[in-house]
């Protein structure tokens, strides 16, 4: 169970990193017309963005959970959910919601706010990294504006895809499994 959860989290972060890498290189090339600069920005910026993304995701997890749980309860719930010791029914019963706490916010306002905060975080990191590499504030600002806009669109799609994957897995775990007819008691 622990290995499956760790694998899923690693795949989510890795898929985000690959998506970010490709988009960052293409946007940096479109703005600089220099493959060396584009590769440098494209290789360094996603590394820092992936770290920032993980921090952003954790902050949103805490925000979404803060209203419902104390810190001790939050830690216990997160730990048991990660170890898959608590199924969806137990989580729903004990916390009044379905699925584990890393689900995408349900209201449009929460989705929009999460996307906006991601965009602001992304802009800041992109400008800092692009300026460190190019030493040109105009190019750094251009990369910082265009690249996060494109990435924000891809982030929303990425987050939605992973939410559906996690929901499908949760539904499969919650669904009753039936054995063969030989395992069923006879009337």
Distance between the termini: 35 Å
Low-confidence stretches: 94-105
Rg value:
20 Å
The succession of helices and strands, N to C, reads HHHHHH
> How large a portion of the residues is in β-strands, by DSSP E?
under 5%
Count of individual helical segments: 6
Largest sheet: none
Helix- and strand-based class? mainly alpha
**Mean pLDDT, nearest integer?**
78
- Helical percent range? over 70%
Total beta strands: 0
What is the 3D form? elongated
Characterization of this structure:
The chain has 187 residues and is mainly α. It has six helices and no strands. The longest helix is centred in the last third of the chain and has 38 residues, at 137-174. It is elongated.
Provide tags for this entry.
6 helices, about 190 residues, about 80% helix, mainly alpha
Brief write-up:
This protein has 6 helices and no strands. It has helices at about 1-30, 35-65, 70-80, 90-95, 110-135, 135-175.
Helix and strand topology:
Elements: H1 2-32, H2 35-66, H3 71-82, H4 88-95, H5 108-134, H6 137-174
Helix pairs in contact: 1-2, 1-6, 2-5, 5-6
């Amino acid at each position: 169970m622990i290995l499956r959860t760790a694998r899923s989290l690693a795949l989510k972060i890795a898929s985000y990193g690959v998506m970010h890498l490709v988009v960052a290189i293409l946007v940096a090339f479109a703005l600089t017309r220099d493959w060396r600069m584009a590769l440098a920005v494209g290789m360094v910026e996603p590394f820092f963005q992936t770290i920032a993304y993980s921090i952003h995701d954790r902050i949103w997890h805490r925000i979404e959970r803060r209203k419902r749980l104390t810190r001790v309860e939050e830690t216990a719930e997160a730990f048991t959910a990660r170890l898959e010791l608590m199924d969806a029914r137990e989580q729903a019963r004990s916390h009044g919601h379905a699925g584990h706490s890393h689900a995408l916010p349900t209201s449009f306002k929460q989705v929009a706010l999460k996307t906006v905060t991601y965009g602001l975080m992304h802009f800041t990191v992109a400008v800092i990294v692009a300026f460190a590499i190019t030493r040109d504030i105009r190019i750094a600002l251009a990369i910082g504006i265009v690249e996060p806009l494109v990435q924000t669109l891809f982030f929303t799609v990425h987050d939605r895809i992973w939410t559906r994957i996690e929901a499908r897995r949760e539904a499969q775990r919650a669904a009753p499994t039936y054995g063969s007819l030989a395992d069923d008691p006879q009337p």
